[in-house]
Amino acid sequence: MSVLVAFSVAPAGGSDSDSVSAAVAAAVRVVRASGLPNETNAMFTNVEGEWDEVMAVVKAATMAVAEAAPRVSLVLKADLRPGVEGALTKKVAAVEAHLQD
């Protein structure tokens, strides 16, 4: 089953620093190394593929953050659309097309 997932993973607790960028970068490295279509913005990382492969990437990214912190926060939103590919870019393109109206 095809899935488009937006997720945010970050360390929670265990550090005196407000910056979580190093731990988040470790998670993003995992996503990019997966070879699945993905993009990262200021709030979430989006990844697209088959259910099992996407969930495996989310788990691996979460475990990468867990190596840096005793507690991890994960927020995940999924769009399940069997047979749909390219949703990562097609959904944005559809909105942009309407903005041209």
Topology:
Blueprint: E1 2-11, H1 21-33, E2 38-40, E3 45-50, H2 51-66, E4 72-80, H3 87-99
Antiparallel strand pairs: 1-3, 1-4, 2-3
Helix pairs in contact: 1-2
- Described by the principal axes of the CA atoms, the overall outline is globular
Helix content: 40-55%
Distance between the termini: 33 Å
Q: What name is given to the CATH topology?
A: Alpha-Beta Plaits
Which sequence of strands runs across the widest sheet?
A: 2-3-1-4
Q: Give the number of helices.
A: 3
Low-confidence stretches: none
CATH class: Alpha Beta
Give the SSE order as H and E letters: EHEEHEH
Radius of gyration: 15 Å
* Biggest pleated sheet: 4 strands, antiparallel
What is the arithmetic mean of pLDDT? Answer: 92
- What is the CATH architecture term? 2-Layer Sandwich
**How many E-type strands?**
4
Structural class: alpha+beta
* Overall structural domain count: 1
Main attributes of the structure:
101 residues; alpha+beta; Alpha-Beta Plaits; four-stranded antiparallel β-sheet; 3 helices; 42% helix; globular
How would you describe what is shown here?
It is a single chain. The mean pLDDT is 92. The chain has a single domain, classed as 2-Layer Sandwich (Alpha-Beta Plaits), CATH 3.30.70.930. Strands 2-3-1-4 form a four-stranded antiparallel β-sheet, with helices on one face. The protein has helices at 21-33, 51-66, 87-99, and strands spanning 2-11, 38-40, 45-50, 72-80. Helix 1 packs antiparallel against helix 2 (51-66). By secondary structure, it is an alpha+beta fold.
